């Protein structure tokens, strides 16, 4: 996911082409440009920059290599990014000495620059004492698998345990149904905010969010078939960054079809839940989707698979849990019992199943899933954030 740099972050830019992208990616940071022609004689005082962006085509490779070698001698070398094609060998060798560095190709966008800077600046921008929300993303393997219902019930269960502020973000921008399920009007104007994503802050997030009536806030947009084309990846990432500053727990209802920002959201999630119903096509889709997500996640991390609408039966056409796990090629991490009457009643009345049918097996199964995903210390180990309203 991209990173938000504060006004205290000092960025030194070498090369004119990087200035515009850096200004859009980090609007609040302190930006300073340096004339590439002065590299042969100019000196940069140690500790004078937190991040240095270098356009490799803007200056002599030898001067750039000497600059990077000098940066590596600092007691705390700055994060450094080189941008350009055909990186000279001398410059590449110098870059190897930097503890936090990366190389980007052209064309360079504010989004790609922000994503590259995020891991390099995480230690600077997120001190150990600062808390961030735990983020769970939910994605259906096929249409109608029940991902939105599960996201709502997870948010309701967490809110009911008094774990702090809980938010649910519906990123099904074209045809999201979370608002309709909860009987709440959608209020998130993310397409408008995409014109200036750097202006998304806690105040705008407060304007976007609405109380769900179930103890958590809902951030959802009105249905718009062209929404995905109108909303920029930078706006989505910025929205979730601010959300993680405001909320203690953030649930994200992801669209089934991949968007440009999907990898960023998945990478920034503490848990990714793939929801499948008990049909052979859905199980095969869930297996493929989980494999695709796992290939993009850091080593040792994998998405969770949740079976929805599990029915107890002795004979019948639907696969059993054991048969489903064979089709998936792995154990499932949770199973939600089928209770069509409770689900339909809640949708029609507007609100979570937990409120309208608290004795439903769905409620009990979702609570068990929360216990699996979050131990007691994660649920109650930190003081809740104050409301921003």
Please characterize this protein's 3D structure:
The chain has 389 residues and is an alpha/beta fold. 40% of the residues lie in helices and 17% in strands. It is built from 17 helices and 13 strands. The longest helix is centred in the C-terminal third of the chain and has 17 residues, at 280-296.
Would you report the number of β strands? 13
Broad shape: elongated
Tally of distinct domains: 2
Task: Tell me the CATH topology of the largest domain.
Answer: Rossmann fold
**Helix/sheet category:** alpha/beta
Number of helices: 17
Return the string of H and E elements: EHEEHEHEHEHEHHHEEHHEHEHEHEHHHH
Overall pLDDT? 87
Largest sheet: 8 strands, mixed
Biggest sheet strand line-up: 8-9-7-10-6-11-12-13
Which CATH class of the largest domain applies here?
A: Alpha Beta
**What value does the Rg take, in angstroms?**
24 Å
Distance between the termini: 27 Å
* CATH superfamily (homologous) name of the largest domain: P-loop containing nucleotide triphosphate hydrolases
Q: Which bin fits the share of residues in helices?
A: 25-40%
Unreliable segments of 5+ consecutive residues: 125-131
Q: Under the CATH scheme, which architecture of the largest domain would be assigned?
A: 3-Layer(aba) Sandwich
Task: Tell me what portion of residues adopts beta-strand conformation.
Answer: 15-25%
